[in-house]
Fold this sequence. Notes:
Largest sheet: none
Number of strands: 0
Shape: globular
Number of domains: 1
Distance between the termini: 19 Å
Amino acid sequence: xxxxADIGLVVLFVLAFGNGANDVGKSIVALMTDPETATFRxxxxxxxxxGIFSGLGSVAAILISVRLFSAFTPQSFLQTAPGSSxxxxxxxxxxxxxxxxxxxxxxxxxxxxxxxxxxxxxxxLLGASSLQWDFLIWRILLPLAAGPFAAFVGVYVLSRLSxxxxxxxxxxxxxxxxxxxxxxxxxxxxxxxxxxAPKMAALGTFLLLGTxxxxxxxxxxxxxxxxxxxxxxxxxxVAKTLIGHTPQQRGHRLKAHAKKGRQFLRSALRGMATAWxxxxxxxxxxxxxxxxxxxxxxx
Length: 299
């Protein structure tokens, strides 16, 4: 492999590492919450649990990667196919911001980071006319904006149903709630892995192998391993941050789901605003910086 491909492998690992920390940390919040004090409780088993299922989701995403490659390859964003240096800078920009945001305990969206790294860098280097605006608006930007609102509806419905059942439930049901927490964490972690892995690996495959039609196993293996590693090393940082913003108490969760639903709604709104107003432009600025540095070092 060329030196660009070698660097791309490393950057892809770093990007997936930060993504794993954020996704798994968000998935295991309930498992990291002390049932008595509703504060952060350091535990290693939830990190392993979430990391395993997120990694499995990344591997399972191979089955649907062909469909998602069409949306998250730089060729789809741009009027002309970009060079490998552009892809490498986009990977570096997204990875740098995700890692920095994780260290600073700022909520971050991998999708917004990747989109921002490509769009902002393209506008800076090639101009706004270089972008496929119809594709971006209808296939990328509008779904990104509409997705959280659909999730809000789901959160509201589930919280109302849980509150109704909670009125009839007794405290002896806390054991079943605990089992539900583990099952829910596994499901969310798996879904996040399926959702994010193709987007990261699509960039990696294009950079490392030339075209999306080539084998995609290597980028997915890298992404899967890095996701698990990120969850084990930094997943607790993200969970601790979210618990501080939206405390939970498992022993009374069935009776307080409506209130918790509103808390999570506020947290989700903050996360959505951060994704659009901070993550997207910052990842783009980091990508621009990476492209400038790359041009100076490699010409």
